[in-house]
Specification:
Layout (H helix, E strand, L loop, with lengths): L5 E3 L2 E3 L3 E3 L8 H9 L5 E6 L11 E5 L2 E4 L8 H13 L5 E5 L3 H11 L7 E5 L7 H12 L6 E5 L6 H8 L5 E4 L3 E4 L2 E2 L4 E2 L8 E5 L3 H14 L4 E4 L5 H9 L4 E4 L1 H6 L3 H15 L29 E5 L9 H5 L5 E3 L3 E3 L9 H5 L5 E5 L1
Parallel strand pairs: 3-16, 4-7, 7-8, 8-9, 9-10, 10-15, 15-16
Antiparallel strand pairs: 1-2, 5-6, 6-14, 11-14, 12-13, 17-20, 18-19
The structure holds flavin mononucleotide and iron/sulfur cluster (2 copies).
Length: 368
């Protein structure tokens, strides 16, 4: 059986599925449930010097697999949080990663408060609500690093416009990266009442869940290319294959937030079990064997619409059961089921989406 253990900066985790800073990591009770649900590591809700004044309502399930939220950070004062929650969270026995924000002044205070407490294995700082200018990011990282002796992770928000510059400014300060936080600002509302589902002043919130997986993968892959430091991937994990993808683009572990809100806190263990099965089926013996093996270079031979050799959807009739899913998705009407599935090559624009919706994997883009 595949070995799910992962080691990040000397910290041993039984599996690479962690909680993420969010409502399902807000206190001891939540993290106890996460531990019972099989999490390999406990990342705790963000604390700051000023407790958050959280608008209500603050989570909207606008889509079955994604969320909008305006939850901010912990509404509990940091001294109280450390004294009451963090001390109890420590007793759970899993590695604990605290989350702190936001300004250099905040991080200096919080670093000093947590330093030497023996309550955490590492700390991540969120850049979500600060100026993402690279020199400010550096100042923020330095303020935390200078005041704490556990490993420091920078948690990126996708709002970072120049990732190479941001990483170059942080890389000699931080010990690792977490990517990504939720995406936005973003807006949805009820057309009849003309009111947002969220209670924030402008109705806006932050997008998370399935919709942001490709952005998270892009960030982790890019950071992995720019830095040798360990990365924890977060954003849109829903299946074991999503975890595999994060590992393949360079993450050593993942965090899960929205899925645990939508499906409950047994998701961590379920993902870990499914990951083990996937690794066994694909002959990957351990987490290490998956990290960073994504092929960043696309095929050497690229294909261009109407220039040179073309790739086309090609049917494996041994597998096709004429379900018609590909026919429905093709907006060009290039597919038709007569006796069997047929393709009008002249109409097909080679977009490839039909190959991805086929439930039996009967379609593949091939030269033809
Ligand atoms: C309701 C909610 C509250 C969150 N609160 C925090 C937070 O306090 N600190 C933080 O760094 N990220 C916070 N996040 C972001 C998550 O940690 C995570 O980075 C993001 O949701 C992407 O992961 P997901 O797609 O698995 O949810 C929050 C997300 C949600 C949905
Ligand atoms: S590749 Fe695109 S255009 Fe061609 S059949 Fe498939 S969906 Fe239609
Ligand atoms: S989606 Fe797949 S199985 Fe269904 S008709 Fe198309 S090729 Fe056949």
């Amino acid at each position: 059986m595949a070995d799910l253990k992962t080691n990040i900066l000397g910290i041993n985790f039984n599996n690479p599925i962690f909680t993420a800073a969010g409502p399902t990591a807000a206190n001891y009770e939540m993290l106890k449930r996460a531990q019972d649900g099989g999490a390999g590591g406990l990342v705790v809700k963000t604390i700051s010097v000023e407790a958050a004044k959280v608008p209500i309502p603050n989570i909207s399930n606008f889509n079955p697999n994604s969320l909008l939220n305006a939850e901010l950070w912990s509404e509990v004062g940091y001294k109280e949080f450390i004294e009451t929650e963090l001390k109890k969270i420590r007793t759970l026995g899993l590695p604990v990663i605290a989350s702190v924000g936001y300004s250099p002044q905040d991080l200096e205070i919080l670093g000093k408060e947590l330093n030497g407490s023996g309550l955490i294995e590492a700390v991540e700082f969120s850049i979500h609500y600060i100026d993402k200018d690279a020199s400010n990011l550096r100042k923020t990282a330095v303020a935390l690093k200078n005041n704490i002796d556990v490993p420091v992770f920078a948690k990126f928000s996708p709002g970072v416009s120049d990732l190479p510059l941001a990483v170059s400014m942080l890389d000699d300060v931080v010990d690792g990266y977490v990517a990504i936080n939720s995406v936005g600002p973003a807006l949805d509302f009820n057309a009849e009442t003309r009111k947002s589902y969220l209670g924030s002043a402008d109705g806006r919130g932050w997008l998370s869940g399935r919709a942001i997986l490709p952005i998270g993968l892009h960030f982790v892959a890019s950071i992995h290319k720019l830095s040798k430091k360990p990365i924890i991937g977060v954003g849109g994990v829903r299946t074991a294959e999503d975890v595999v993808k994060y590992l393949m683009v360079g993450a050593s572990a993942v965090q899960v937030c929205s899925l645990s809100i939508l499906k409950g806190q047994s998701v961590y263990g379920k993902l870990a079990k499914d990951l083990e099965k996937w690794m066994d089926a694909h002959n990957y013996p351990n987490i290490e064997s998956l990290i960073g093996i994504f092929e960043p270079e696309q095929e050497k031979v690229q294909h261009f619409l109407y220039h040179g050799k073309q790739v086309l959807p090609t049917v494996d009739y041994n597998v096709c059961d004429n379900c018609g899913a590909c026919v429905k998705i093709c907006v060009h009407n290039a597919l038709e089921i007569k006796d069997k599935l047929t393709l009008e090559k002249e109409i097909c624009v080679r977009c490839g989406i039909c190959t991805q919706v086929c439930p039996t994997h009967a379609l593949e883009m091939k030269e033809g």
